[in-house]
Design brief:
Distance between the termini: 23 Å
Number of strands: 12
Radius of gyration: 21 Å
CATH topology of the largest domain: Aspartate Aminotransferase, domain 2
Number of helices: 14
Amino acid sequence: MNFLPFAFPDIGDEEIAEVLDTLRSGWLTMGPKTKRFEADFAGVIGGGVEAVAVNSATAGLHLALEAAGVTEGDEVITSVYTFTATAEVVRYLGADPVLVDIDPATMNMDPAVLDQVIARRLEVRGKVPKAIIPVHFAGLACDMGAIMAVARKHGLRIVEDAAHAFPATWNGALVGTLDTDATVFSFYATKTITTGEGGMIVTRDPAIAGRCRVMRLHGIDQGAYDRGDAGGPSWYYEVVAPGCKYNMTDLAASLGIHQLRKAGEFRNRRQAMAERYDEAFRGLPLVTPPRAPEGETHSWHLYVVRIRPESPVARDRFIREMADLGIGCSVHFIPLHLHAYWRDRYGLKPGDFPRALNLFEQAVSLPLYTKMTDADQERVIGAVRKILGDR
């Protein structure tokens, strides 16, 4: 019996041909293919955004926060239910993350709790945090209307963690075009489109875009390709800031150019698979993932079910039995306050975020990727029903 993985990239002949073309061109690092991918991505997002390609969404969040003015001693609010990268970039800048519990119905940041936390920080520190990082978990957009209202009320910047959310919408608008400072997407190998490793910052603020471009490559005012392309002396550059080494390569962008063209097809396939799971799991002791509101788009990066307490097996045993049946599952995420670093640095306890803790103890991410065949999905469905049905 072949093992069915939790995720697998969908790479076609077009991507392979583009990578070969890049290899033959001799320009492997950031150059014409990266610029093309940036332009294509900005065009797909629309709304007059600029796009800045980087080597990971983690890098993108770091650069976007720095460009938005987050600095040492600041605080940045984010969801406790996210991957550590969302919070670790805050520490890169000498700032501190402030964690917020989730809305259990959506698994996203709870705007009401967000407002309360800001009020407490004002009371304790005499000032509000600098910024908010909403996390669009699993591809379902946060309640951005409420979050943006809270940000405007207190004068906070917003950098969206949209690692899961391409393409997703809120209030009919694509994530990436909302009235926020910047949005960061991920193209990691398991994401809805992939460049292997990579990410994209999008913003309508030319100052943020310009700062991110400088800081992604050592704080140099122009990249090597731009210096030569501009017709000037290609050897000359100026370092204007202590930057990072965060640029995307043309090899990665070569994948992205064609993955982007397939993004709509990929999303439709993921939604169809999610709907098939929903129907197949009716009557089982689990909770299926929340749907996007009517008329909105869910990217379906993840399909996260919750194993109910009355289930014949608990979450960990469910994952083991799925593996015994040759099917890979995962857990998204271990809440930040349960990890040693965040727990010990900020004196956090498991019960500090009860909704996130409850979700974590029940959550399982089932395989959901476009290379899955109908027979593959039926195999997953059969295994879930075997484990959670009558025993």
